[in-house]
Design brief:
The protein is mainly α. The chain contains four helices and no strands. It has one domain. 69% of the residues lie in helices and 0% in strands. It starts with a helix and ends in a 7-residue tail after the last helix.
Length: 188
């Protein structure tokens, strides 16, 4: 094999294309769902670490982007509202169903965060391992590819959070209008 870098570049290209397609597919698949709170910070939010075999041992992952960000699972209130409306739950049933739904919501959030953390670790390892095979010039190009990919992911994440904020504001405005439009009971 005369040019192993071509095989490596093709592998990286396929991996990045799969990650991007998977991300966009997930966004499109969930775009119709209404969320009550912004999503929790993602474990993949991290500062770039220059690629070199010397820092390969520990990919650095930053903590949450916004201090005090809500870690509440957005699916719990959605499921409770859906179950209440569609199943006609009584007050007693609601009190029994709520802990079950909350536990499931916490489990789903934990699984999502673990999956994202695993994805971040695999991606970091990929870049470090590929970097070890490359020339210094190729490493610079790989770092540029990595930055561009992370910039796209951050921009999409920001767009998604802004869309959720706009949707929440629209819902709040609609509820406010409903309250104002509702007839008031006469004073006794």
């Amino acid at each position: 094999m005369e040019k192993p870098w071509k095989v490596i570049a093709a592998f990286i290209g396929v991996f990045i294309a799969g990650a991007i397609f998977g991300g966009f597919f997930s966004l499109r698949a969930t775009s119709g769902r209404r969320m009550q709170a912004p999503p929790p910070p993602l474990p993949g939010d991290r500062a770039l670490v220059p690629l070199s075999p010397g820092n390969a041992a520990r990919p650095q992952v930053a903590g949450p982007q916004a201090p005090g960000a809500s870690r509440r699972d957005p699916i719990t209130p959605t499921l409770m509202r859906q179950f209440t409306q569609k199943l006609g739950l009584s007050a007693e049933q609601k009190t029994k169903v709520r802990p079950i739904v909350e536990r499931a919501g916490e489990d789903l959030l934990r699984i999502r965060q673990e999956s994202l953390a695993d994805t971040a670790r695999v991606t970091d390892r990929l870049y470090v391992d590929v970097s070890a095979v490359l020339t210094p010039k190729q490493r610079e190009e790989l770092e540029k590819i990595r930055r561009q990919t992370e910039d796209r992911v951050q921009a999409e994440r920001k767009r998604r959070v802004e869309a959720i904020a706009v949707e929440a504001a629209n819902r709040a405005a609609a509820k406010s209008e409903e309250r104002l439009a509702a007839p008031k009971a006469p004073a006794p």
